[in-house]
Amino acid sequence: MTLDSVVAQLAECELVDLTLTLDEELPGSWPGTEQYRHEIENYYVPVAADGRRYPSAGPFYACWMTLHEHVATHFDAPAHFTPPPDSGIEGESEFGTLFGDLVDVRSLQGPAAVIDAREDESNLGGLSPAIEEADIRAWEAAHGELRAGEIVLLRTGWDRHYRADDEGLRYVYRPLVSKDAPGWPAPDAGAVEYLAERGIRAIGTDAPSIAPAQEAVSTHRAGLGRGLLYIEGLASLDRLPVRGAFFVFLPIKVARSSGAPGRAVAWLPASVP
């Protein structure tokens, strides 16, 4: 296959953006962490707005940001929940030194296998319902076995709560902090271990976390401790077919990071329904 033929094939594909927009008005920051901030550093001319004066050192526009590693659409590197070897800390593993900048970006791209994990929120009982090994096996019975190198994307539909109004409190604040609303569907440790056995190296979700609202450690350790990667805070997974799209996530490259925000997209060939 020549470069020209690859370019011609890509030209026929639809590029689907699967990334949440970063905005201070949107609920992309995890409660209790440094909140996302975005401020004007320089404006074309000196202006006063919103009770502030914005300086101008020249005819250009520039801003600065305070950006947590785990905000909006981002990935978890193994070091996020895996202590380094010989640390004497429970859960230590060789993958505890696999920081975000050391992750091979090829592990964050591959054919997408989209698993419908939506739940009726009226029946969730205030907690995150578990996505279990049996659910994965049922999907495989309907759509074929998962193959090594595929990126498993869990479509929970939770990105519908990513809004700037009161509905946005249901995205993460009410399930996690006030605990008066259901949590997002999330895989349990057994499901993650099964996916690892299948040769899956990366799992994505359109929920704010791969782990359930009520308990974060077991699901994170089950995958990250085995060198898996998690992409969290995806969007628009309803635009992808069960199989047939090619997923790509490119994180910011930050030294010694536990993960990083980035841009997630999927290439969707025109022939895929």
What's the SSE blueprint?
Blueprint: H1 3-11, E1 13-17, E2 37-42, E3 47-49, E4 52-54, E5 62-66, E6 74-76, E7 109-116, E8 130-131, H2 133-143, E9 151-155, H3 173-178, E10 186-187, H4 189-197, E11 202-205, H5 217-224, E12 229-232, E13 243-251, E14 259-269
Parallel strand pairs: 7-9, 8-10, 9-11, 11-12
Antiparallel strand pairs: 1-14, 2-5, 3-4, 6-12, 6-14, 7-13, 13-14
Helix pairs in contact: 2-4, 4-5
Quick structural summary:
The chain has 273 residues and is an alpha/beta fold. The protein is built from 5 helices and 14 strands.
Q: Would you give an account of this structure?
A:
The protein is an alpha/beta fold and 273 residues long. It has 2 domains: 3-30 and 68-269, Putative cyclase (Glucose Oxidase, domain 1); 34-67, no CATH class. The protein has helices at 3-11, 133-143, 173-178, 189-197, 217-224; strands spanning 13-17, 37-42, 47-49, 52-54, 62-66, 74-76, 109-116, 130-131, 151-155, 186-187, 202-205, 229-232, 243-251, 259-269. The protein has a 7-stranded mixed barrel with strand order 6-12-11-9-7-13-14. A two-stranded antiparallel sheet has the order 2-5. α2 packs across α4 (189-197) and α4 (189-197) runs parallel beside α5. The relative contact order is 0.22.
Features:
single chain; 273 residues; alpha/beta; Glucose Oxidase, domain 1; 2 domains; 7-stranded mixed β-barrel; two-stranded antiparallel sheet; 5 helices
CATH superfamily of the largest domain: Putative cyclase
* CA radius of gyration: 20 Å
Order of helices and strands: HEEEEEEEEHEHEHEHEEE
Structure summary, number of beta strands: 14
Strand content: 25-35%
Instruction: Give the CATH class of the largest domain.
Output: Alpha Beta
Structural class: alpha/beta
Number of separate helices: 5
Mean of pLDDT: 94
Low-confidence stretches: none
- Helix proportion: 10-25%
Q: Overall 3D geometry?
A: globular
CATH topology-level name of the largest domain: Glucose Oxidase, domain 1
